[in-house]
Write a structure and sequence with these properties.
With 129 residues, the protein is an alpha+beta fold. It has a domain of 66 residues. The protein has 3 helices and 5 strands, in the order αβββββαα. A hairpin with a 4-residue loop joins strand 1 and strand 2.
């Protein structure tokens, strides 16, 4: 074995954990957030008063013609201003899709990056006993 003597020989290779780049994680978060926004835009455009809504981020008061929008990542609200302000509103019911488009523009401008990263990195919710 004189040929292989120049190499270090061990019993088995070490376990190597795949290191994820934080940029890759945030790309996935941004992709999921934009998919959720697109879904909400489609729901807002298809809204009909009196119809049952499917998991909308908008709370509508059809009698007053107002709506309040809570921007979310998954099921968690994203803080938009300050430390606790997560809801946009009241806005006219007909302008809900436009508000979602404006949220999409704010995301593209980077205004939601810090808040989105904070919410996305929280991990799963813990059960209350």
């Amino acid at each position: 074995m004189a040929v292989l003597d120049k190499y270090s020989i061990v019993a088995k290779p070490p376990k190597i954990a795949k290191a994820r780049e934080k940029a890759d994680v945030m790309q996935k978060v941004n992709r999921n957030f934009l998919a959720g926004l697109d879904k909400q835009i489609a729901l807002a455009k298809a809204y009909k008063p009196g119809a049952k809504e499917k998991r909308s981020w908008a709370t509508r008061d059809a009698d007053a013609g107002n709506a309040w929008i809570t921007v979310r990542y998954g099921n968690r609200p994203i803080v938009l201003k300050g430390t606790k302000k997560t809801t946009i509103g009241p806005v006219p019911v007909g302008d809900v899709a436009k508000v979602f488009e404006d949220v999409k523009k704010a995301h593209a401008a980077g205004e939601l990056d810090a808040a989105l990263k904070k919410v996305a990195m929280l991990g799963p919710r813990k059960k209350q006993s």
